Amino acid sequence: MPLSHPRRSALSEQVIAALRQQISSGEWPVGSRIPTEPELVEQLGVARNTVREAVRALAHNGLLDIRQGSGTYVVATSELAGVMHRRFADADPRHVAELRSTLESAAARLAAERRTEKDLKQLDALLVRREQAWESGDTEAFVAADATFHLAVVAASHNDVMTAMYADLGEVMRDWLREDVGEELTPETHMDHARLVDAIRTQDAETAQAEAAGYPFLCRPGRFSSPRGG
């Protein structure tokens, strides 16, 4: 007789859902270390084995990375994002840049045509946050601020499918940007996004598309770059 596979307990499913919510809500952002197993046991009021099973399930699905001796870290915000991250982790950086260029330029054109006043206020605020992160010299803060800004541009397209796909590729994009800017922020890797926001504001779709298309190819010396260095 074939072995039976009992369905995962309802309690375990609830713990998985609770942990997933912490991740998707941003309470545990990508790159952060989640609470330890004893802390989760105390917070959730369940047995250690239940917590361990839930963490392993989310690690299997690509949301968490269990690092022996270091802890467990968030690597993606959804199962699809986890798959994307694993699938493209070793991709040619040029191909990632071309994908980003294609998505962002198309989204920027739509954003210029469809943006709302709420979208513009958010873009203005995120642009300021991005510049502040740059001036602070904190590379990780800049990567996070830049990624959030670009996601907001895509969201301003009001194309839910495009926005979801870009969000799921988010960590792949952040990995690329992290590698591109290097450990230290330098003038050569600075990208001015004010023109993009201005084009979206004035509903100049062609300029918005051109501005967004150039950004991914700004690379430090020794890597590929576009003629405009955007």
Can you walk me through this structure?
The chain has a two-stranded antiparallel ribbon with strand order 1-2. It has eleven helices and two strands. The chain has two domains: 10-75, Winged helix-like DNA-binding domain superfamily/Winged helix DNA-binding domain (Arc Repressor Mutant, subunit A, Orthogonal Bundle), CATH 1.10.10; 81-217, GntR ligand-binding domain-like (Four Helix Bundle (Hemerythrin (Met), subunit A), Up-down Bundle), CATH 1.20.120. The protein has 230 residues and is mainly alpha-helical. The N and C termini lie far apart (64 Å). Helices cover 63% and strands 3% of the residues.
Quick recap:
This protein is mainly alpha-helical. 63% of the residues lie in helices and 3% in strands. It folds into two domains: 10-75, Arc Repressor Mutant, subunit A, CATH 1.10.10.10; 81-217, Up-down Bundle (Four Helix Bundle (Hemerythrin (Met), subunit A)), CATH 1.20.120.
Question: In terms of quaternary structure, what is this?
Answer: single chain
Question: Number of domains in the coordinates?
Answer: 2
Which range does the strand content fall in? under 5%
For this structure, the CATH topology of the largest domain is Four Helix Bundle (Hemerythrin (Met), subunit A)
Low-confidence stretches: 1-7, 216-230
Describe the sheet with the most strands.
2 strands, antiparallel
Structural class: mainly alpha
Task: Count the beta strands.
Answer: 2
Number of helices: 11
Which sequence of SSEs, written as H and E, runs from N to C? Answer: HHHEEHHHHHHHH
- Silhouette: elongated
**Terminal Cα separation, in Å?**
64 Å
Question: Helical residue percent?
Answer: 55-70%
CATH architecture assignment of the largest domain:
Up-down Bundle
In CATH, the homologous superfamily of the largest domain goes by the name GntR ligand-binding domain-like
Give the overall average pLDDT.
82
CATH class descriptor name of the largest domain: Mainly Alpha
- Rg measurement, Å: 20 Å
Read across the widest sheet, the strand sequence of neighbours is 1-2
